[in-house]
Amino acid sequence: MATHLITKLNVSTSKDEEEILGANGYQLINSDLNEGTGKNRIFIWYKKECGLKPVTRIQFSFNDSMKSGLADAGYELVDKDLNAGAGGDRIFMWYFYGSTESDIPIVNLEVTKDAKEEPALLKDGWERLGCDLNRRVGGKFIYLWVKREKPSYICEITATVDFTADKQKFDLGFTRVDEDTNRGAGGNFVFLWYRRSTDKSKALTALNASTDFQENVRLQNEDFKKLSVNLNSGTEGNDVYVWYLYEGCESQIKNMVLLINSEAWTVYQKAGINFVDKNLNEGNKGWKMYLAYQ
Fold first, then answer.
1. Which of 73, 154, 164, 177 has the fewest CB atoms in 10 Å of its CB?
2. What is the pLDDT of residues 109-129, one digit of tens each?
3. Alpha carbons within 13 A on the beta-carbon side of 166
4. How far is CA 271 from the centre of its chain?
């Protein structure tokens, strides 16, 4: 097996840990996740080892309920809080060695701290993981990105309104977008999920969202299929649904992102990335957020 595949992940929250990981063959992503907080320097590290199984999926948890499905599905926990010392949510990284069709080895990692950096990575085939690593700290929106060994496409999306099916979804090869689409709105924890394939013919070709009855009818008439889960479950807001398309001459979807950073909304549109101009928290007091895809 080639040595360009990532086989282990780790996190340092102190100078001693940095030296220990460095001495043990780990490579550093040189981007302090606590930059600007005046607190502990926090870095993500990775290792590439010959002949070992490659990491194929990475997830984050920002509350205890998110952990059990990951643990039950056999994900490895890196037991270091990525917000250590800075307040905010306690965020943990998990990684997995998978063998489903959706498990494409990860060859590289990158961290962004500015919305302006994101479109170029997306266009270059990088996949942005959904959790803001500064969640509830304030300051910059920080994301981890992965580059995979082969080009792959999103072949299925789904959504959940509780944590009961998490293990089953992980077992099937799904990646959870680790941001609550009901954030700030009360109601259920609602998450979007996607599954990847290297088979271009299975790829979704367009995404959309509806926030009222007229939009439902229009999307149905355009042959879009609707996810059965209301993304506003448990809130007072409009019924919000995500829709997807399999056919059509649009290009195949390689990545989708949930944009909660208001700066990103304009940046993505100016970069020509498909932007679904429907607030997923329409009608409630939750965070405004939009889907984009490439």
1. 164
2. 999 999 999 999 999 999 999
3. 23
4. 20
